[in-house]
């Protein structure tokens, strides 16, 4: 089982179809992509041994697809890294992974070349002479790989400490591809995916099912997310899918582009909470194109799925509750809400979300203690808190570390955030707990105003009309923006640190 065989198959079946594009410009067919990958893999295999790790510190570009598949073709392990990290963070990840080589786009090469990583032979710049030299080798056949062989090291965001290297196997990746076809969307040859989100994360995973079906992988000219550019690409291509963080969807909705988007087929969103108000706004703007997925690095993009039909089913008596959920489990994936002893809880009871199935990681790279803590009794312990209704729909409350305990009562920040977002002057909000001598913790709301700052008395009244009095924020902090990582997740740790610094 070698995931690279997905490309080899498409190179035969869809040889003349466009495989890679930059903006509106096609740069490779599937036959050309397959041939380049076979040569690049041979060039890598001449320098490295099976299972060696190869780092990618790159903005989105066609070479991302070539390198990922070349690593797998050669029997190597790809280590895509968030290109926006600090050099010291890059150095840690490359060192922890034991990367032998690292590739970087020209804008990032100097920073990567200056890193001190024991055992790493060097950093190769994309499109340099060293890069081109790798293609001089005679093409090789895909390496033989076992289902449990590592394929992708995915480093977690590290919001609670040092990032951990999630080990994803050949089996994990193949199961994720099949999950996509079963629950997310069908892909026809000639459909496209626009990689506006980082390919080191979710968008890169969705490269796989599109390659498997002969789809077109489009990287924006900017190499990232610019709403105006995305709208241009939606007009230029057909059958377009995008993976987007909720904040990206919100920006697309708010972008004042009057034109229709006939090329848009699917927006798959995840990576953070999509508030019901934002979901409804996106449905009104784009129509029935939304699919929500819930996952984490340890089971990427593959825990639950709320498909487009359920987004659009406004006649269902629990439609709004379903929009607030993350949907039922993916096909072939088991999800349980459990107590502290891993016992399943009855419907609507709140506990930790546990997962098992072929999409769950093998463990953390070189971290047996963390692996044993997270993978217990045959289940992945996500650290997320949620409840499951009688129909199997999972609703997330919060990360366990984000739950606020005030006066002995649990307060789930998302519940408060959903209410505050009903106010027309609130653009974004994040709720955290602050240590308090009397109550243990008190509720603090960081608010990004939409125009003029909202009246806090109105916010209080809104809360008192929808949630228990003890859940109402004790203080509102108006800010210009919320701190986020590059996948759009709000960094609540940074907000708590800000409160601690202010005293």
Note down, in words, how this protein is organized:
There is one protein chain. The protein is an alpha/beta fold. It has two domains: 5-388, Rossmann fold (3-Layer(aba) Sandwich), CATH 3.40.50.12780; 403-502, ANL, C-terminal domain (GMP Synthetase, Chain A, domain 3). It is 33% helix and 27% strand. The protein contains 17 helices and 25 strands. An eight-stranded mixed beta sheet has the order 2-1-10-9-11-12-13-14, with helices on both faces. Strands 15, 16, 18, 19 and 20 form a five-stranded antiparallel beta sheet that branches. Strand 11 (240-244), helix 10 and strand 12 form a beta-alpha-beta unit. It starts with a helix and ends with a helix. The mean pLDDT is 94.
Summarize the structure.
33% of the residues lie in helices and 27% in strands. It is an alpha/beta fold and 503 residues long. It has two domains: 5-388, Rossmann fold (3-Layer(aba) Sandwich); 403-502, GMP Synthetase, Chain A, domain 3 (2-Layer Sandwich).
Structural domain count: 2
Helix amount: 25-40%
Give me the secondary-structure category.
alpha/beta
Stretches where pLDDT falls below 50 for ≥5 residues? Answer: none
Percentage of β-strand residues: 25-35%
Shape: globular
CATH hierarchy class name of the largest domain: Alpha Beta
Number of contiguous helices: 17
